[in-house]
Write a structure and sequence with these properties.
The complex is a heterotrimer of chains A (252), B (396) and C (343). Chain A contains 9 helices and 10 strands. Chain A is α/β, with parallel strands linked by helices and 252 residues long. Chain A starts with a strand and ends with a helix. In chain A, a hairpin with a 2-residue loop joins β1 and β2. With 343 residues, chain C is mainly alpha-helical. Chain C contains 15 helices and 4 strands. In chain C, α1 runs antiparallel to α13, α2 crosses α11 and α5 runs antiparallel to α11. Classes of the chains: A alpha/beta (252), B mainly alpha (396), C mainly alpha (343). At the B-C interface, α6, α12 and α16 of B face α6, α12 and α15 of C. Chain A: GO terms for molecular function: ATP binding; ATP hydrolysis activity.
């Protein structure tokens, strides 16, 4: 039984069947990639996992608990973090403040009125935030305003914000979209490093085959809202059905 | 000190010194001189400075930090005033119960309105708060007349119970016998300074409220509010529920408004529905923006600035203008007066509107940002040297 | 029954004003994406166009009439409008009498001009700024316009009568078989309602059947795409702003005889019109019109004595109450498109 179990999930937008009948199991401590051509339903699936969309049919369980009907912040509190296609960070705040916020969420839960105690005095939070910034090599940028950084740094910051909460499952939505090759490689290295250091499960939605094959331990190919095939990267590469549906155009 | 950073402590101390010495600072001109019209050191005006300061500080906690623009905050001011006057009517003229009740009722009221309004954001939130405030205004004039005394306004009558009133106590608002209206006049040569009890009580309360606001700004709660303004999506996916935070901010700022309303009634025991009208809500928005939304000192500056110029501009009439420009040739004098006339006296609101537009267009950060820009210009040459120095540091 | 019809009719004229202002607000919001808090001021400017024209037309010169004396015994001064001396007393006085309808012709170019200047000079710079900034700057502008009008016309309402022909009331009661005087309705309000209906129809026809309207509608649906097609959408939006201003203006002109114009009438109507827009659905033109009439009629019904006895004060707050319920239950409004500023 995997850490994340998706059973018979279907989602319909008006006349469009976005997800047919998706069954997927993500094993603990693996990197699981979900690939597929545009419009295959990857993003819809992801949104069903994090509580942004509610699937019409089926069930989604995380560590045996159902995720359906829970709001994004509740799902996050259960240990699921999400990295967005375009980095979602607190653009007006400093890098250090950005990472402190998830630290508070990790320590205090989804709401705690800390109205009077000064941030200055929260040494445990500060240490946590500093440690994660060290981890992602951003400690020298701690006082920069987040919006003034490069896209690569924003991505790095977003990852740091997710990781500091010590999630059990990290969902990555095209983490290298729109990046230069060098930045892409840096991101891959960062992710690999993270994987080495922690017990973490990653589910990656990705277009870039280079990223997928250099990281994933299992790959699910999604086409027209249903999983086409699920296997190891080696087998996927040679799979005729996949070549036909997807890889042929991608020119790996 | 007081659990604040050095920078904030010095800010608090500066504000404390300024408010405590306000009777001197605001009366820089000798009483008899022609410039005396620019003096602002009389009790009534000074009270308004600090009371609106409290109102704006509270509004800033909501608007400045979370970015939720409420157009209905005057409703809380009105509720606060009504509560305080009711306490005067029932218990007696001691202002303490009145102020306590005004904070409590406005808090409850804010909780109710906030709970509903905060289910929407952006412009919808603004319109919802506006609708609630207008509704309260309309109700205060009609159905709630037994509570609000309608158009006459709520005031204390001789026939009111005033259970704790005794003949030994003054028959006007007081704090344990200290009358709000009592003023000590200090004559120093040509100068005269007024030290008013009511002002000092309001000023002390404002300082406490300002201190509280600094604590909120520097607390994890304040950080969450700033996060709400920047990116609610990320906040959601960070496991935090924005709604209780915004609601808490709404209630806190509503309580600040209620406190201001209570103090207003304590200085002058009268409460009218016009305090709840949306133009009054607009005024506090204006003060906050003008001073600098999201900054600590901005709202206080804005409130002082608007109330000061409201007072000065409203007093200037054509006779005053003639005095000013008497040195000019007649034609020039008349011409200048014709030009200036629409903007002064009763035309103060026109000036205010223009000022407001100018601030939003050219200086969205308000006076604080303007001050920073000027300071930067002055330090310009020095700062340039600094950057070149860092630039020339060889890369690793 | 007669009471119900009476309230229905009473609701129509206020509803017409709401609908016309809300229509303009929606046009501006839909095309330009701007929340215009100064729209009520445009309505007020329209009403003052009527006042101004009436004053211009009644400009008079004084002559001394030796046959009459005033109460002090001096020879009386008689004012004669220039128009009467130019066109003869009858023609002249009837022109003055008709000054409100004539003011429409006078107001249209003025309001289009005002709208044009407003859009090019101010609003244009706020397309990319947050909605809060748009609200604030137009709020400031509304104060300025209001105060300028106050400088020129004073703070008191200025009675601006309708043409004599439309004084008096129409007796619907007799027409519908009730007692005489049971359902009477002033002629001018009837005129106002018909006029509003015509204007609304004209705006819809314009958007539906002209190329210009088609482009604007496309722009409302998806601004960027139309821009890519090489159509100069910005220029069209400017014109659209002018039209919206003109609609608000002439709505104000015609409203002048119903309620004597004063400088704060714009603000009074604006708050309610915003509520109307929200109830109708942000960005939906039919929604704005529907909600305008609906709320006008609802307001009129809730001011009936029978209802006020059960729910005192309900007439004061009914519109806000409806808005609050709508926003919570169906945030996109009665006819709003899904996803338009829903959160």
């Amino acid at each position: 039984m995997g850490i994340l179990e998706i059973k018979n999930v279907g989602k319909r937008f008006g006349g469009l069947q976005a997800l047919g009948d998706v069954n997927l199991s993500v094993a603990e401590n693996t990197v699981h990639a979900i690939i597929g051509p545009n419009g295959a339903g990857k993003s819809t699936l992801l949104n069903c996992l994090v509580g942004k969309l509610i699937p019409d049919t089926g069930s989604v369980t995380f560590q045996g608990q159902s995720l359906l009907g829970r709001s994004p912040h509740e799902i996050n509190q259960m240990g699921v973090s999400r990295v967005f296609q375009t980095p979602e960070i607190f653009a007006d705040l400093t890098v250090f403040e950005n990472v402190m916020i998830p630290c508070f969420a990790h320590r205090d839960g989804s709401f705690k009125l800390n109205g009077i105690s000064a941030i200055r005095g929260q040494n445990d939070i500060k240490e946590m935030a500093e440690a994660i910034l060290m981890d992602v090599n951003m400690i020298d940028k701690r006082d920069m305003t987040a919006s003034s950084m490069s896209r690569g740094d924003k991505r790095r910051l977003e990852m740091a914000m997710c990781l500091v909460q010590e999630p059990k499952l990290l969902l990555l939505d095209e983490p290298t979209a729109g990046m230069a090759r060098a930045d892409t490689n840096n991101t891959i290295d960062l992710l690999k490093e993270i994987k080495e250091k922690r017990d973490i499960t990653m589910a990656i939605i990705e277009h870039d085959m280079h990223v997928v094959f250099s990281m994933a331990e299992r790959i699910t190919v999604l086409a027209q809202g249903t999983p086409l095939v699920e296997d190891t990267p080696e087998n996927i590469k040679g799979h005729p059905k996949v070549r036909e549906a997807y890889l042929g155009e991608a020119q790996v | 000190m007081l659990g604040l950073e050095k920078k904030d402590t010095s800010l608090l101390i500066i504000v404390a010194i300024l408010t405590m010495c306000a009777p001197f600072i605001l009366n820089p001109f000798p009483t008899g001189s022609a410039m005396a019209q620019f003096n602002a050191g009389y009790p009534d005006l000074m009270q308004r400075f600090v009371i609106f300061g409290i109102f704006a500080i509270g509004f800033n906690i909501l608007f400045g930090l979370t970015g939720y623009l409420s157009f209905g905050h005057a409703a809380f001011l009105g509720v606060g005033s009504y509560s305080a006057v009711w306490m005067f009517k029932l218990l007696g003229y001691n202002i303490l119960p009145g102020i306590v009740l005004s904070v409590i009722t406005s808090g409850v009221f804010a909780l109710l309105i906030g709970y509903i309004s905060l289910r929407r954001s952006g412009i919808y939130f603004s319109i919802l708060t506006l609708a609630f405030a207008q509704m309260s205004f309309a109700l205060a004039y009609s159905v709630l007349t037994p509570l609000t005394n309608g158009e006459t306004g709520l005031q204390v009558y001789n026939s009111d119970p005033q259970y704790f009133h005794s003949d030994a106590l003054p028959n006007i608002p007081h704090l344990f016998g200290q009358e709000m209206q009592s003023t000590f006049k200090l004559e120093l040569g040509a100068w005269s300074f007024d030290f008013n009890t009511g002002y000092y009580i309001c000023a002390l309360i404002m300082l406490v409220m300002f201190y509280l606001a600094i604590r909120i700004f520097r607390s994890p709660f304040g950080l969450m509010l700033k996060a709400i303004k920047t990116n609610q999506t990320r906040l959601n996916y960070t496991g935090l529920n924005p709604r209780p935070y915004t609601l808490a901010a709404f209630v806190i700022s509503g309580m600040y408004a209620g406190l201001a309303g209570g103090l207003m009634a304590s200085m002058d025991p009268l409460a009218g529905a016009e305090r709840m009208q949306w133009t009054a809500s607009g005024e506090v928005v204006l003060m906050t923006i003008l001073g600098g939304a999201g900054t600590l000192i901005g709202p206080v500056l804005g409130a002082g600035f608007i109330k000061y110029f409201e007072n000065i501009f409203s007093k200037i009439n054509d006779t005053v203008l003639h005095q000013w420009f008497a040195f000019l040739p007649d034609g020039m004098e008349d011409f200048l007066i014709v030009i200036i006339h629409p903007f002064v006296g009763k035309g103060w609101h026109l000036t205010l509107g223009l000022l407001f537009m100018a601030i939003v267009i050219f200086l969205p950060g308000g006076l604080v940002e303007g001050g920073q820009k000027i300071a930067q210009k002055f330090r310009g040459s020095k700062a340039k040297d600094d950057t070149t120095a860092t630039d020339s540091t060889p890369a690793e | 029954m007669d009471v119900i019809i009476l309230q229905l009719l009473n609701g129509l004229d206020k509803g017409s004003a709401y609908a016309l202002i809300a229509l303009g607000l929606t046009l501006i919001f839909g095309t330009l994406g701007v929340v215009n808090f100064a729209h009520g001021a445009l309505f007020m400017l329209g009403a003052f166009c009527a006042v101004t024209l009436q004053r211009i037309l009644s400009l008079s010169f004084e002559t001394i009439d030796p046959t009459k004396t005033d109460f002090l015994g001096n020879p009386a001064k008689v004012k004669t409008p220039y128009l009467e001396s130019w066109f003869g007393p009858e023609m002249g006085s009837s022109i003055i009498d008709w000054s409100v309808p004539l003011a429409i012709l006078f107001a249209i170019p003025i309001m289009i001009g005002v709208g044009y200047i407003m859009e090019r000079g101010l609003i244009k710079h706020f397309y990319k700024r947050p909605h809060a900034d748009q609200i604030l700057v137009t709020f400031g502008l509304a104060i300025v316009i209001q105060e300028v009008i106050k400088q020129f016309y004073g703070a008191n309402p200025i009675p601006t009568p309708a043409p004599d022909m439309f004084k008096g009331s129409f007796d619907f009661g007799v027409l519908l078989g009730f007692d005489p005087n049971a359902v009477i309705y002033p002629y001018w309000r009837l005129v106002y309602f018909s006029f509003a209906a015509v204007i609304i129809a004209a705006v819809f026809a314009f958007l539906q059947f002209t190329t210009f309207g088609m482009v604007v509608r496309a722009g409302m649906a998806d601004r960027e795409t139309v821009g890519l097609l090489g159509i100069n959408i910005d220029k069209r939006f400017t014109i659209m702003f002018g039209i919206a201003a003109a609609v608000a203006g002439i709505a104000g002109v015609m409203y002048a005889p119903i309620n004597s114009p004063n400088y704060h009438m714009g603000m009074d109507f604006l708050v309610l019109s915003f509520v109307v827009v929200v109830v109708g659905g942000m960005g939906s033109l039919p929604g704005a019109v529907l909600a305008g009439f609906l709320l006008g009629i609802l307001e009129s019904f809730s001011s009936m004595n029978q209802i006020k006895q059960i729910l005192p004060g309900i007439d004061q707050i009914i519109i806000y109450l409806v808005a609050i319920i709508i926003l919570l239950v169906r945030p996109r409004g009665l006819m709003g498109r899904k996803g338009v500023m829903e959160d």
